[in-house]
TrEMBL record:
Homotetramer. CDD domains: TPP_PYR_PDC_IPDC_like (cd07038). Belongs to the TPP enzyme family. This is pyruvate decarboxylase. The lineage of its organism: Eukaryota, Viridiplantae, Streptophyta, Embryophyta, Tracheophyta. GO terms for cellular component: cytosol.
Length: 245
């Protein structure tokens, strides 16, 4: 092994907080969202690519502190984010509009019932398509109504935002992420497909003071259960399979 090879060290990911990719635009909406995810402790994002979220995924891929994990379907991505939130306190997933959003709903509903902060990001329609004369899109269910997916997520998330203009995008994104951490519940963030690469002065603001709530374990209940198991008042069942003869 050469001297140069021996001297080369791979820097741990958690020590690379200040390293920024030369391909990333941190003044853009996509770069802002990527940095917010990193700042709250997310290092893996579970996704299913679709035509409405491809531009956003490009910005997440460009973030050196994020690992984009492609999943075979939206439900898997949602449950992966659920499990990630259980071990890392917060999870994130990215899908496409309606066809992806409706597919991930079971997982998000489960995270809601389990008090897990999962940030569900959806690549939404072009911002120019919003208005009184909405077009029927191939992602919709046959109606010129872009709010169908939003109405579904209102029942299983603590906050929902539809980002289709830059003026209040920073406030919407940061507010939704803060709500997820504060209430320990999933949130829904829809981002128009034409906005991730656009810049706005608000994306230069300092990070908000995000903090994860401390989860306390009731040790008295644990001791009570262990005592009852030892005394024979409670039973532990182990499920397994019998090897073939």
């Amino acid at each position: 092994m050469s001297t140069s090879a021996r001297s080369h060290k791979i820097q741990p990911k958690n020590l690379a907080f200040n390293i920024r990719s030369k391909h990333q635009n941190y003044n853009s909406l996509g770069g802002h969202l990527a940095q917010r995810l990193v700042q709250i402790g997310v290092s893996d994002v579970f996704s299913v690519p679709g035509d409405f979220n491809l531009a956003l995924l490009d910005h997440l891929v460009a973030e050196p502190q994020l690992n984009l994990i492609g999943c075979c379907n939206e439900l898997n991505a949602g449950y992966a984010a659920d499990g990630y939130a259980r071990s890392r306190s917060v999870g994130a997933c990215v899908v496409t509009f309606t066809v992806g959003g409706l597919s991930i709903m079971n997982a998000i509903a489960g995270a809601y019932s389990e008090d897990l902060p999962v940030i569900c990001i959806v690549g939404g329609p072009n911002s120019n398509d919003y208005g009184a004369n909405n077009r029927i899109l191939h992602h919709s269910i046959g109606l010129a109504d872009f709010s169908q997916e939003l109405k579904c997520f209102q029942q299983i998330t603590c906050q929902q935002v539809v980002v289709n203009n830059l003026d209040n995008a920073q406030e919407q994104i940061d507010g939704a992420i803060a709500a997820a951490l504060e209430h320990s519940k999933p949130v829904y963030i829809s981002i128009s497909c034409n906005l991730p690469g656009l810049s706005h002065p608000s994306f230069l603001r300092n990070p908000l003071p995000f903090s994860l709530p401390v989860r306390y374990i009731n040790f008295f209940n644990i001791i009570y259960i262990l005592i009852n198991i030892i005394n024979g008042h409670m039973y532990v069942y182990l499920l397994g399979t019998t090897p073939p003869i």
